[in-house]
Specification:
It is built from 18 helices and 13 strands. By secondary structure, the chain is of the alpha/beta class. α7 packs parallel to α8 and α9 runs parallel beside α10. The radius of gyration is 23 Å and the shape is globular. The structure holds pyridoxal-5'-phosphate. This is Aminotransferase class I/classII large domain-containing protein. InterPro entries: Aminotransferase_I/II_large (IPR004839), AspAT/PAT-like (IPR050596), PyrdxlP-dep_Trfase (IPR015424), PyrdxlP-dep_Trfase_major (IPR015421), PyrdxlP-dep_Trfase_small (IPR015422).
């Protein structure tokens, strides 16, 4: 074990023994080296004569860059060309934490860590998975999940996703099924890792406030029994809450809930600010030990990032930092929110008509980018291919019964035609099956 890793592990053990027990083997081994980045950061402060540390180029006291590149940016060169600080631009990190507090009143003044910038949420999932999951470990998720979790957690890391049925027959979240799985896993392993994604991909569901409280309570109760709990919150679609759901992340209630519980929030500008290609996301920790723990965890995150991708895109961090400070952001975002909400409600209005109700059932949805049809008697993949080939309509088959529709990508005045074609295609296949 590298002595720097040992030092971080000792800090974590001292601040939060349960978190120490949650770290994977790699999570224990990883550290942020006193290598080029460390030495260059030190030189930045002290090398007043010459700084010949880092592998970038300087000209006229600024970053060397090509004139042709400059044409395409109207940001200062220093905000584009150099490597970003390893944990992200400090002002951006502060601003993101402030935004998080404002939008999650249940966070109050709880001590959450300064978010570390990742190359968006997929990368954040990977970093957290590497730090906390060993091959063979189980991570609990609703059975409605983003398919890429399988690639990240199972294929790459060798962990196993255990699912519970997300919905009960009353059209709400099946908290009982969640509790059963959490309790069983706690008993079996003494350690429980959970990933909850709301607004959910693929269904577009976010729990009601009551359900959210109940879900949180399940994890807190489990932690109180002595089980070490890792609660990962994939808040990719945060803010897009159209109806009766909670308007907060579960991270708020869990972030200082119990010493045995580490809450991790993954979020970013990709979905929330419609900046998918920016690849700017964040990892934030919540634990009652606060700063005594966060410093060491942050170093481990930085080490994982350094090992995997070295550094996150700087230009897009600068843009996100600027838009967060822009007085027009709120109104601009509100406009897009209303467009997305209009589409979601329109989809519901269409599917709730008797002509549709008889044919197409759907899972509850109230938020996000998507909704998901629950097909009866027609294979989702067969319908997807049929819709594509006969009508030029693209959808996603999630499994044999579920067809995901991204209403986020369809104008409101085209939803009528889209669902008419889906219904038609469905009925054609259903007839064939008879
Ligand atoms: C639930 C969920 N998490 C994470 C991601 C990845 O987001 P990003 O583009 O920020 O990596 C997606 C994207 O589809 C998603 O649906």
């Amino acid at each position: 074990m590298n002595p720097l890793a040992t030092e971080l592990n000792q800090q974590i053990e001292k601040a939060a023994p349960a978190v120490s027990g949650l770290l994977s083997d790699l999570g224990q081994r990883i550290y942020f080296p006193k290598g080029i980045l460390f030495q260059s950061a030190q030189a930045k402060e002290k090398a007043h004569k010459f700084n010949a540390t880092i592998g970038t180029a300087i000209e006229n006291n600024g970053p060397m860059h090509l004139k042709v590149t400059e044409r395409y940016f109207n940001l200062p060169p220093a905000e584009v060309y150099p490597y970003a600080p390893p944990a992200g631009r400090p002002k951006l990190r502060e601003a993101w934490r402030e935004k998080m507090r404002k939008q999650n009143p249940s966070l109050g003044k709880k001590p959450v860590s300064l978010p570390v910038v990742t190359s968006a949420i997929t990368h954040g999932l990977s970093v957290v998975g590497q730090m906390f999951l060993n091959p063979g470990d189980v991570i609990i998720s609703p059975d409605k999940l983003w398919g890429n979790y399988r690639l990240t957690f199972e294929t790459v890391l060798g962990a196993k996703i255990a699912t519970f049925g997300m919905f009960n027959d009353k059209g709400g979240m099946d908290v009982g099924a969640f509790k059963k799985l959490v309790t069983a896993e706690g008993k079996r392993a003494g350690k429980v890792a959970v990933i909850l994604n709301f607004p959910n991909n693929p269904t577009g569901y976010t729990p009601t406030q009551k359900e959210a409280d109940q879900l949180g309570k399940v994890l807190i109760e489990e932690a109180k029994k002595g089980t070490k709990v890792l609660s990962i919150h994939d808040d990719s679609y945060f803010g897009l809450f159209y109806e009766d759901s909670t308007k907060e992340s579960l991270f708020g209630q869990l972030s200082d809930a119990h010493p045995n519980l580490l809450a991790v929030k993954l979020d970013g500008a990709t979905k929330e600010y419609y900046a998918w290609g920016f690849r700017t996301g964040f990892i934030t920790f919540g634990h009652p030990a606060g700063e005594a723990l966060y410093g060491a965890l942050e170093k481990k995150v930085m080490g994982t990032i350094r090992a995997m991708i070295s550094n996150c895109n700087h230009a897009s961090q600068s843009v996100v930092e600027h838009i967060l400070a822009d007085a027009e952001l709120a109104a601009d975002w509100e406009r897009t929110f209303e467009v997305m909400k209009g589409r979601a409600l329109k989809v519901k209005e269409i599917l709730d008509r008797p002509a549709y109700q008889k044919v197409l059932a759907y899972y509850p949805f109230n938020s996000g980018y998507f909704m998901c049809l629950k097909l009866d008697g027609v294979d989702a993949e067969a319908l997807r291919v049929h819709l594509l080939e006969k009508y030029g309509v693209g959808t996603i088959s999630v499994n044999a019964t579920d067809l995901r529709v991204a209403f986020s990508s369809i104008e409101e005045n085209q939803l009528e035609e889209l669902f008419e074609l889906i219904k038609k295609g469905f009925l054609e296949l259903k007839k064939e099956a008879k």
